[in-house]
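Example (one chain per record):
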Amino acid sequence: MDDRKHGLESAIDALEAQRRVLGDGVALAHAEGLIALTEAGDDSLEGADEVAIRWVCHRVLAAAGDARADAALATAHAALEARAAVIADLELRESFLEAIPEHCAIRAAWAARRRH
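Predicted structure:
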């Protein structure tokens, strides 16, 4: 794993911890930084798990009651579905979408959003 990818995974973990321990304000500030990087297509995100980044950002925004949470969920869902779409084997694609807890959570949140 290259240092850049490891650093981003550490940032995602730290964001989750900040949200739980320090509260939404600190986590929100860091989430905004990650959102800006993803929207700018920053090269520092190359090789990072875009789905995970966008999902964590959605969770932080939603916990803070931020109106951008819906858009963050939409981008997380779109990134997940785009990654799944390139998996030609249907059984592997289904496993990718259903065996990973974060992927199940994204799809459930997306389905719940569409019901409202």
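Caption: The longest helix spans residues 3-21.
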